[in-house]
Fold:
Amino acid sequence: VSTQSTGTFIHEKQKEKDEEQAEKEPKNDDSTTEGKDEDDDQEETEEEKENQDTDDDKDKEKDKSKDKDKDEKKRKKSQLVLVREDKEIGALAPVRLFRFCDLLLPYVNPGAIPNYLLEELSTLDFDIFPHKDADNEDYVITLAINMFHKLGLVEEFKISELSLFRFLKTLCLRYRYVPFHNFYHAWNVFQTMYVFLVSLGTSNFIGPSERLALIIAALCHDCDHPGLNNSFQAKASTRIASLHKKSTLENHHLLQCRNILSQPECNILQNVEDSVKHSIEMYITHLILATDLALHGVIHRKLMEKKKLLTKIVKQYETKQTNDIVQVDEDDKILLMCCLMKCADLSNEIRPTHIAQRWAKLVIAEFYMQSEKERELDLPVTPFMDKQKIILSKEQINFIEKLCLPLYEPLC
Structure:
């Protein structure tokens, strides 16, 4: 009995322990679940914080992207303003339409030019205005091709007919429809240079490379001229003025020339040796920059300093026994070429009166347009362009006496 009672007692005690343990286990589960819930709550708060942070980052990124979009819009707007500025403020006429189909095949016939006209091209009596009035640019290009042949440049430098045509046609399309500084003015300067080279004995002092440089520079010296001078570009703060601080338009014309020659289909120097090509490009740079009237006094002073030397060179030519080119120092040669370039650029005054008068009226018309543009933009009006003050005859006399004669007389 005692054994049984003891066993039951132990059994009961064991049962009580099991029950207590069972009671404790759910409590432990509850505590663990509560701990888990707390952990979950903490994780949820952390996730919420992280989500909130990511949302904040996204908002910041959106704000940044909006700011970038605004900046991009402002930049594009400023570009549009610059483009508009070039079209409306910096030029009297827009850039001409360029079509590649115009360059596919030459549609000019240099052999169709009559002989009497070819002979007249060698004189200053040639009148470009009938062709200008008819707006016959292709015929003028045909005349230019003939002059390249007459100077022997096509054969000397192995210029292909197709490249020459494309060079002249592209150059023609780069000139704008402004009253004076248009393609016909450039062609007029080119034809004057042709007269100097074939009629005045200049070929005895300069070789083929120099002749080609003079011809190219004469054609390109006002390429893409906007009809508004350097002073206007500076006053109006145009894009061209921001690119070139000195000789603004002249540097622009030079870049246009280089751009055309850099195109394979227009490169008339593609068969020239590198050393000769470098010399030609160097001459072209000097010649086009020399057309800046701000440098007129500097060039004239140098010419007067070298007057005795140039006279000595002329005497050497007159007494020489052979047909060889008279040797001239490189700097003196460049000075002489620059003077020829300036004389050709100012050559309207040495042509017959009826031709010179028409060119003078076109210059004044362009001056008037610039003065009107200056008033429209509330800029200081250039005095010698003011329509209310200018007197054509007086301006012509000043131009001849102060610019032309001081340059022509020493060269003569």
In short: Residues 1-10, 26-33, 76-88 have pLDDT under 50 and may be disordered. The longest helix spans residues 2-89. DSSP finds 17 helices and no strands in the chain.
